[in-house]
Amino acid sequence: RYEACFKLKVVAYAKSHNNCAAVRECGVTEKMVREWRLKEHLLRSMPRKKCAMRKGTAHWPNLEKHAVDMIREQRQNGYVVSRNKIRIWALKWAKANQEHSKDFKSHCFMATWWLSKTAQPLSMGYVHESFNRGNKPFKDRVHEHWNEWMISGKKSYTKGRNMHAPELDVLCDFVIRAWNDINVETVIKSFKKCGIPNSLDGTEDKM
User: Fold this and answer.
1) Residues 87-98: pLDDT tens digits?
2) What share of the chain is helix, strand, coil (3-state, %, to 5)?
3) What DSSP string describes 107-175?
4) Which of 14, 15, 84, 98 is most deeply buried (CB count within 10 A of its CB)?
5) Angle at 107 between CA 89 and CA 114, to 5 degrees
């Protein structure tokens, strides 16, 4: 969730440089940059701290209320609540309570205001992006250990002159040494950014 003021800064940077440069500088996706540039006039009409233009009343208020209760209960019990989990639950509830869910559309339901506040999006792309801060130094250190092994003279070859892979204990040593080199605070922040160990009262959701 990005505020309008941030989106406009990204747009301005993209216009003065290019979309790819804005992606690298601001840490967003190219798709976001393209969409924000197309909606620049709408972004300028929004309050600077607002994240989205939403209006009107809820289409399925009973479903939304039950969904909020379900999400809070799950999180209080320590379970991760992903967008896909909410969507599946909503479809089941709508099917069982058709009198409260006429013309139900899951994609519209997923855009409601409470979802962005309570859901923990854990798609593989999101997890990879969230862990990138801790993952890059880890991979860099593994590569360093690999390069050290490559020039150490310990490698061997097949008769066809193809190099043998390192022994399993050697590979494990690469990983252990690289993991131990990572700052503990970096690991903690990466997990919190993914929404995995955050406080259940919601005070750390902004991370």
Assistant:
1) 888 888 888 888
2) 65, 0, 35
3) HHHTTSHHHHHH-----HHHHHHHTHHHHHHHHHHHHHHHHHHHTTT---B-TTSPBPPPPHHHHHHHH
4) 14
5) 70
